[in-house]
């Protein structure tokens, strides 16, 4: 699969990420992005609400697919199995392009407002996961802890995946973090 | 132990929290807080840098004490034992007054900027915890996961403590969350 979605949307995303890396997010204007992508600002706004949305527009799809995976998991699944199913769906949605994830991560880590935005998105995702677990009949306290624990596993796995020098799959990184969590809690 | 520290600092904190609850954080001015506490705005600024600091000034003490507990834990402690020692120190620092924690939490949850600030403080605390684990010789990946897992346990325990109808100690809530985490990971 190619890195950028075809057409103007993909060109705009590529142009935006490159400009954010070259000049910084605050110094890049929508007009600069449109110009680099060879389209008008009007076209930019057909794809993205603002320049921040280029970085965060995957969140809705990620949430939708992960909740669908959680809902579709077998009736025998434990709370942590359900969380793992949700995280695997996240990996299937964003895991195909590590270079894109790296560029995005570099842009976000360089800007305090974007780091805040990312923390908020993660907190919202965690709350949605806990709600999904409750809908699957998991008790309130267990759902809350399983969702927060899944969020912890995901944060760690994501950083490892983005930082890994060699080949690493996001799904594999998530599995490794879950295995390490079991070792941690068993050793204690 | 009384709820408010003695003197003008305690009166200012009490006045501020009550006003934030009555009028909202954004609608409360430093002059209002000083007036309610019976002091001048100049006195307010001897205790707090701004009206937000009334809510977040415990963070430095919490971080310092929890890192000291982590550093002072026995050499045989596992990564999760070290995290538990750090969280117990957090409980000892803020756990003596649930009503104060509830008021603060209500104010924060009602305001998007304050919720963001709280998420940032938690993320900084998690990063400091991971660094503390590394200084105790815990490997990089394990330190990262143990710190994030501890943060998950803490978030859940804190919410349970604040929301509990009956008696509940913050330290007890943390112990319960750790026990539940072990059950969750063992069941999987």
What topology does this entry show?
The structure is a homodimer of 188-residue chains.
Chain A lengths: L6 H17 L6 H8 L3 H7 L5 H4 L2 H14 L6 H16 L3 H12 L2 H24 L4 H24 L6 H18 L1
Give me the CATH superfamily of the largest domain in chain A: Tetracycline Repressor, domain 2
Question: Largest interface here, residues on each chain?
Answer: A-B, 32 and 33 residues
Structural class of chain A: mainly alpha
Total individual domains of chain A: 2
Q: What fraction of residues of chain A sit in β-strands?
A: under 5%
How many runs of DSSP E, i.e. beta strands of chain A? 0
Can you tell me the CATH class of the largest domain in chain A?
Mainly Alpha
Identify the overall geometry of chain A.
elongated
Distance between the termini of chain A: 43 Å
Oligomeric assembly:
homodimer
Q: What is the correct CATH architecture of the largest domain in chain A? A: Orthogonal Bundle
User: Largest sheet of chain A at a glance?
Assistant: none
**Helical content of chain A (DSSP H or I, runs of 4+):** over 70%
Q: What's the helix-strand series of chain A?
A: HHHHHHHHHH
Mean pLDDT of chain A: 93
Number of separate helices of chain A = 10
Spans where pLDDT lies below 50 across 5 or more residues of chain A: none
Rg of chain A, Cα atoms, Å: 18 Å
Question: Do you know the CATH topology of the largest domain in chain A?
Answer: Tetracycline Repressor, domain 2
